[in-house]
Design a protein that fits this description.
74% helix, globular
């Protein structure tokens, strides 16, 4: 959507965008000379405390596209769009139970990625390469979605397609990401958190006040869904309950398998820092619930758009003065810069460590490894930029949905690999291959939808494809390992876990 240029909003937008990103660059500049290795560049030297880890993990887990996409889904289908809330409720007990243990192993063995851990745990280059490849292909459309969120905002400011502005913004991002690594987006995360909280809290107070209260908002949304019919409404329909639950559970299990999420975890200073973050991060879920309500507010405000992604920008343009619109749009774009930078860093680290070094140049020096990762981050960002400019938006969204199903296939070896058991790399490689192939095939067969309807015992059950493929993946992996153990085949030594259970993690 592109209309007349909103000059006041545009000026305020660029003032805050340049100001906040500039502060992030300057704040990280003093530490740039300490970036001597990939560990310093990609994980910030593993030195972030509770507060830094909180805004860093929150910044890359709750992305700018969330601010755009969740209200758009709620606007379109109602209660079903709230599946992101139970997903983020489920994920933190898992985060508390698993991630401190993963951090302890990775810190001791100097692992920087999930593929590093899998290689060390199972002794299989092939299985580690499968994990690395999965991480890479799942991330490009995810980064592209952050750009799409930025593009939607820029277009609503009246700047046409916004390609030039996107290029300028990501040139700035690439420069300070290349220069300082994770330290720059970590600094920028503070600005993002403050700005987003101000915008959303203001919105959920001001917009209901202008519209006549939440009673009117929910009544208008209910009437709209009743007129629309189908599986829409303020509450879930019976047919939506299983896909809603399976999407929430599958998304929770997949969430911290992505390279950018693991980067935030492994950059922390200790396992206790991670536990504290598991306790504090649910505060962001409260914010997410308020963000989702913007979808209902847009219905009550009578917003009509051709593309549902324009819902939040159109609502803000309708309800706020231009100066606050500029500030809000800057907050959303800064909210895209942070996760996009962390995603690029995490993806570049995986490529450098687990593809280039592991498969082609195992004797690469630490200095060269760091330089290569920096260059790879720029390539990743540029590839994502091209993805947005030259491919239809819907294509990126569809691929990201497939990406969630793909990344879920590394869950068994990463999570269960943290515990002592007789797991065989060959069995879990076969499970991964079947999960990836079947997940891709089913998603294509359903028209690039993340759920599939299964017909058996006279009923129809719609379920998240990722959960089907994960169960099959695990059945093959554990079943194959059981048979190999019966045959007397010894699994790889799990020396990476030596002494772990005697420690407090």
């Amino acid at each position: 959507m592109s209309g007349p240029i909103h000059w006041t909003a545009l000026i305020v937008f660029f003032v805050f965008l340049i100001g906040v990103t500039g502060i992030g660059y300057v704040a990280s500049y003093g530490k740039a000379t300490k970036v001597k290795s990939l560990n310093d560049w990609g994980l910030g030297g593993r030195q972030f405390g509770i507060l830094f880890t909180l805004v860093l993990v929150g910044g890359d887990f709750y992305t700018a596209y969330t601010v755009i996409a969740v209200p758009a889904l709620v606007y379109s289908v109602g209660a079903y769009g709230f599946f992101a809330l139970p997903f983020t409720v489920i994920v933190y007990p898992f985060f508390y139970a698993v991630m401190p243990r993963l951090w302890t192993v990775c810190k001791r063995q100097d692992y920087m990625t999930a593929a590093d851990f899998v290689h060390g745990r199972f002794g299989s280059l092939w299985l580690a390469s499968a994990v690395a490849l999965t991480s890479l292909i799942a991330m490009i459309p995810y980064i592209a979605l952050q750009l799409i969120g930025m593009k939607v905002v820029i277009e609503n400011l009246g700047l046409g397609q916004g390609n030039l502005s996107l290029f300028i913004a990501f040139l700035l991002l690439a420069v300070y990401t290349y220069h300082s690594g994770l330290k720059a987006p970590a600094m920028l995360s503070f600005g993002k958190a403050i700005m987003i909280f101000i915008v959303i809290i203001t919105a959920v107070i001001w917009i209901p006040y202008k519209l006549g209260g939440f009673g009117f908002i929910f009544s208008a949304a209910n009437d709209s869904f009743a007129a629309k019919g189908g599986n829409t409404g303020l509450t879930l329909h019976p047919a939506q309950m299983l896909p809603y639950a399976s999407m929430a559970l599958g998304s929770a299990l997949a969430g911290f398998m992505y390279p950018h999420a693991l980067t935030g975890v492994l950059s922390s200073s200790g396992s206790e820092t991670i536990k504290w973050n598991a306790i504090l991060l649910p505060a962001f879920t409260i914010l997410l619930g308020l963000i989702a309500l913007l979808g209902y507010m847009a219905i009550a405000a009578g917003i009509q758009v051709d593309n549902s992604s324009d819902i939040v920008p159109a609502l803000f343009l309708r309800m706020f003065p231009d100066w606050f619109v500029g500030f809000s749009f800057a907050a959303i774009v800064v909210g895209a810069l942070v996760p996009a930078a962390i995603m690029a860093i995490g993806t570049a680290t995986v490529f450098t460590r687990n593809i280039w070094k592991a498969l082609f140049h195992p004797d690469i020096s630490p200095a060269t490894e760091s330089k290569l990762a920096k260059r790879a981050s720029v390539v990743v960002l540029f590839a994502s930029l091209c993805f947005v400019i030259f491919l239809p938006t819907q294509y990126a969204i569809d691929l990201q949905l497939i990406g969630g199903i793909w990344i879920l296939q590394i869950f068994p070896v990463v999570v269960f690999g943290l515990y002592r058991n007789r797991m065989h790399a060959s069995a879990f490689l076969a499970g991964w291959l079947v999960g990836m192939a079947l997940g891709t095939a089913l998603t294509i067969a359903t028209g690039l939808k993340p759920v599939i309807a299964l017909h058996f015992l006279g009923g129809t059950y719609t379920i998240f494809i990722g959960m089907i493929t994960l169960v099959l993946n695990m059945a093959i992996g554990f079943g194959g390992s059981f048979l190999l153990n019966l045959m007397g085949r010894k699994p790889a030594d799990d020396g990476a876990l030596s002494g772990l259970d005697a420690e407090t993690v």
